[in-house]
Structure formats: C-alpha cells, structure tokens
Amino acid sequence: MKNEKSSNALLIELVIVLFFFILSFAVLSQVFAGAYVTEDRAETTSRALHDARNVNALMQAGKWSLLEEESFREENGVYILERDGYALHLEMKDEFTSCGLLNRWTIEAHRSGEVLFSLPGARYEVTGYE
Predict the structure, then answer these.
(1) What's the pTM?
(2) pLDDT by residue (tens digit) across 25-42?
(3) Which of 48, 91, 111, 126 is surrounded by the fewest CB atoms within 10 Å?
C-alpha cells in the first residue's frame, strides 16, 4: 500500500513538472513572437525612413522629374512608391507668392494601413527677379 502511494505521488509530481514546462513554453513562445514582430516593424520603419530621406533630398534639390525614375505612380495628386513591406505617399502643395513659389510636401510611410511616420519638406523658388 505504501508503494502505491509513493507511485501516485511520483505521477502527480511528473504531471506538475510537465504542466510547468508546457506553461513556460507557451509564455516564452509569446515573448519571442512579440520580439520578432517588433524587430520586423523596426526594420521596415528604418528602410522606409531611409527612402523618405532620399526622396526628400531629391525634392529639396528641385529634381521633380526623378520621381518617375524612382518608380512613383500618381493617384489623385498623391505620388505613391510601393516597396517590400511599406509604401511611401508623397503629397505636394504649391503656393504662389509675390516673390516666388513655395513648394511644400509631406512624405508618409504606410504599412498595412498604418502610418509609420510623416516627413514634411519645403523648397522656395524665387521668381520675377533678374
């Protein structure tokens, strides 16, 4: 009888240990999955920011024609550049003043319907003076 109690206790201890390992595995797999998603989002944001800075530099240099060479397409006045995992949206607004033209734009990075960041830019062209 004593032997049966000891074997039952051993089985209960094994079940408790197995339950602990299964619970630990579930928690750790959630932690690692969350870390992977965070790392993927950070990498995508970094690549999108690099491309947005390059486009911003082109815009500040006044090289509008290079947008088409960079594979932008226009939809309803917004230029869109599709990349792997994100899209850059470039919206331009021109404002004529008495001394020149103020070009303003906003570059937004989108991923899965979410806006990652927004980068504004501007360039002023003096006109009418010789």
Answers:
(1) 0.72
(2) 999 999 999 999 899 999
(3) 126
